[in-house]
Every structure is written in structure tokens, then in C-alpha cells.
Design a protein that fits this description.
With 189 residues, the protein is an alpha+beta fold. It has 2 domains: 77 residues, Arc Repressor Mutant, subunit A; 94 residues, Arc Repressor Mutant, subunit A, CATH 1.10.10. It is built from 9 helices and 6 strands. It starts with a helix and ends in a 16-residue tail after the last helix.
Length: 189
Amino acid sequence: MEFREAMNILEAILFASGDSVPKSRLCEVMEIDEELLSNVAQELGDHYDYEMRGIKLLELDNAYQLCSRADYSKYVRGVLETRKPNPLSQAALEVLAIVAYKQPVTKVYIEQVRGVDSTYTMHSLIEKELIVSCGKLDVPGKPTLYKTTEGFLRAFGISSLDDLPNVKEFAKDDPEQLAFNVLMPEDPQ
């Protein structure tokens, strides 16, 4: 398959899908290896960025997705008549930080770190599809484990959890950010 044709096929698949498509599925359908897919996606994304097109290519862990460029969100919202989503509360940001940095985690662990009941906040984050249950911990009572989702990556504009800031470095540079030190205790799980 010619490189340009692969780029056009990738664009067509992602446009038609509307959601993220796993890299393995793209390789299978396009009959190319992951290295070529990565090069094709990089070229397509660079093309959108260079021309400041209305769409951009997102890489989300092991998937790709097309989305509208944030610079034009006001216009997209205007046409779709959707409201700007409510910003996340301080409690939601705290829970997300704990889950993102320590996942998979239990509700009990989150509440031990925060020192308050987090039931409502966790339900809210699940409804917003920012966290999801991902199994049970093998201890008495079998508590549910939680992790972040692709929606979390999308919402924070990162490709993978590896793109999160290093908490220890952040706290070292700004000692007043001691709240982040709470993420680094010994795991009570």
C-alpha cells in the first residue's frame, strides 16, 4: 500500500468512526504494521497541525481519534447548541489525581487519602466517563478497583498516563503544593 493511500484510508476510517479506534484494529483492517501506522498517523496529524485545520488527530494510549480543534470549539458548540460542560469541582480533581497516579485503586483508598466520603464525587466521575471500574481487589469483601478512561485522556489533552507531570518533581519545585504529597504515601491497599 502506498503511504499517501494509507494516510487517506486512516483519515476515512477515523472520520467515519467518530470514536477512537484501537491501533491493532487499524493495522488489521489496513493490512499494515504498527510502525507504518504510526508514521502515517504522525504525518496526518502534522498535516492538520501545519495547516491549522479544523480537525486534529489525537493519539489516546493504543488508539487514534479525530476531533475538532479546540480553537474552534465556540463555533462547534454554537452549531450543536451544546452547553459548555461544568468545570470539575476541587473534590473531583482530587479524586481524579489519586486515581490517575495510583490506579487501579479502591474507593476506600481514595477516601483514606482524602479523609472524606467520596461516593458522590466518584459517581459523578463515572457518569462523566472519566473513571471506570476495572475489576475487584482480591481481599475480603472484594472491593471494586477504579482506573481512568480514554475520556480522561481526551479531557486533559494527553496521549497516555506517561504524559502526566511527575508529582515528586512538582512538589519538590513548589513546597506549597503539599496536597500532591498525599498521592505518594505508602499504599494502604
